[in-house]
Amino acid sequence: MNDFDFHIGTWAVANRRLTTLFAGSTDWDEFPATSVARPVFGGAANVDEITFHTRGFSGFTLRLFDVQREEWSLYWASSRTGTLFPPVVGRFADGRGEFYGDDTHEGMPIRARFIWSEITPVSARWEQAFSADGEKTWETNWVMELTKA
User: Fold this and answer.
1) Residue 55: left if φ>0, alpha if ψ -120 to 50, beta else—which one?
2) 47-70: burial string, b at 16+ Cβ within 10 Å, e else
3) Calpha distance 82→108 (Å, rounded)
4) Distance CA 137, CA 131 (A)
5) Do the bridges between strand 28-40 and strand 96-105 make them parallel or antiparallel, or are there none, so unpaired?
6) Tens-of-pLDDT digits for all 149 residues of the chain?
7) Could you tell me which residues come within 8 angstroms of residue 109 by beta carbon, excluding any fewer than 6 positions away?
């Protein structure tokens, strides 16, 4: 239940975000951010706010550990919309966290996947991918390289 303890604190974040989704694009936008995470419920939950200084918006993540199911639900909200996106759900195994959920992109139903990997005391990697074909193929569209500040 303390899988996300590594994330607690302040992080410098290097972002790479695909500019156009589901179009075979290889054009990436790169920009910095700062993330601050803190524990809730003794580590069974946590929250973080990430500020994209050069983009003029921020994001908020709530992560909750379901004790009975032994899995995490991750909820994301953006200051651009003020809405909470559907959760991705999953768990960690062998130092890697995989989380999946249903969502939409421009009105099209998709599957979303978040992966946490390459976790050390001072760094971590997060990536987001979408699938529009029932998880047959995935398009990674956002990668964050985190470094402890």
Assistant:
1) alpha
2) ebebbbeeeeebbebbbbbeeeee
3) 20
4) 6
5) unpaired
6) 889 999 999 999 999 999 999 999 999 999 999 999 999 998 899 999 999 999 999 999 999 999 999 999 999 999 999 999 999 999 999 999 999 999 999 999 999 999 999 999 999 999 999 999 999 999 999 999 999 99
7) 102, 103, 132
Contacts with 95 (C-beta within 8 Å, 6 or more apart), sequence order: 117, 119
d(CA 6, CA 123): 9
> Which two structure tokens, joined as six digits, stand for 16?
């790479």
The single residue listed with the structure tokens 């599957």 is: 111
Closest CA to 18 of 9, 27, 7, 31: 27
Q: What 3-state DSSP class applies to 54?
A: coil
CA distance 130 to 57: 22
* Two tokens, residue 34: 């700062």
Please give the Cα distance from 108 to 54 (Å, whole number). Answer: 29
Three-state DSSP state, 5: helix
Spatial separation of the C-alpha atoms in residues 89 and 16, rounded to whole Å: 23
